[in-house]
Amino acid sequence: MLGSNMAQTKYNATGKWTQNTEDVINKKVGAICQPVRNLVFVKVAKCGGSTLTNIFQRYGEAHNLTFLLPKPNTSSIKQEDILEHIGKPVNMIVQHAQYNEELMKKLMPNDTVYIGLIREPLRHLKSLYNYKKLGNIPSMPTLAEFEENPWKYTHTNRMKSLMNNQSRWYGLKNFIKGKLNKDVNLTAKFVEKIAKQFDLILVTDHMKESLVLLKDVLCWTLDDMLFVSHKVANENIVNFNTGGLQESNEHTPNMDIAVKNMRRYSRVDYGMFDFFNYTLWERIKTKGDAFRNDLRQFEDKLRFLHSTCYYAKESLALSEEYIEKVVHEDTSSADYKCHRMLLPPTQYGHYIIRPKQDN
């Protein structure tokens, strides 16, 4: 039901922006392909961004690149962290940080590539709702109740933060400057702004296809894009630590009303998703057989990888002993790449990247 609703609205939502889709679809890699070293990735919460951050961390470590890291014991990069590093060499920002065009352009080199991530908003809402455990708080509605009438519950900041949650990571709050979320033109203007400033917005719901396209944008290799899903890891870690007792709020059975309501309630998020999902597939079309061959090869590589590299008790428990083993593992070890793929971004940054950069 969810997928069919999305398909029916895609053309209508994107048709009015055709003059901008052409610009996005026809974005090309430079004539001489040089591997990208300077990169900003907007890691939107609950969009599968940890999987991507791990890809960028592994590439950066292998190529001795410098990361802007969150302060110790935190997981997000704040505005003051960016300000403190202006004038210092930074190659990559890949952990949670709200996009700030002015500050990031002051910090990063001129040839920096900007990458984003977006997810179908109802799937994102469910993931975020369960992550925050909102439906398990007696004073809060269940996910189904919220979807059936979101406006009824926006009297608290906690619930209001669900409105256009993904777009907030792209600077929506500063963009609207207090304007109401009712202006369709405002949505189009915001999406156009992001489309101009970002080289590629990946779609969580089509991760493999997104990564093959990203490979071309970054001029990296398919091997650089290999991954083990950290979404699966996060769920398994929760189950491992709670004995499988984690509660989950489900969508309302009336998905038609949920889609209708959330398209009004999170108008900008849906505008973002519709536009960048559409342009992702249009960009893929322009690549023809070359893309299909790359995707087939990528899927073969992933199948082989996942047959030998997967989460076990020690990689889920993340004990100090296990982390120490991974940190000091020799690059010639057969498990070296796998162990780094399994390491969550927070631990990767704290235990591997930070000590190297501090030396």
From TrEMBL:
GO terms for cellular component: Golgi membrane. It is found in: Golgi apparatus membrane. The keyword Transmembrane applies. Pfam families: Gal-3-0_sulfotr. Keywords: Glycoprotein, Golgi apparatus, Membrane, Signal-anchor, Transferase, Transmembrane, Transmembrane helix. It is a single-pass type II membrane protein. GO terms for biological process: glycolipid biosynthetic process. GO terms for molecular function: galactosylceramide sulfotransferase activity. The keyword Transmembrane helix applies. Belongs to the galactose-3-O-sulfotransferase family. This is Uncharacterized protein. It comes from Owenia fusiformis (Polychaete worm).
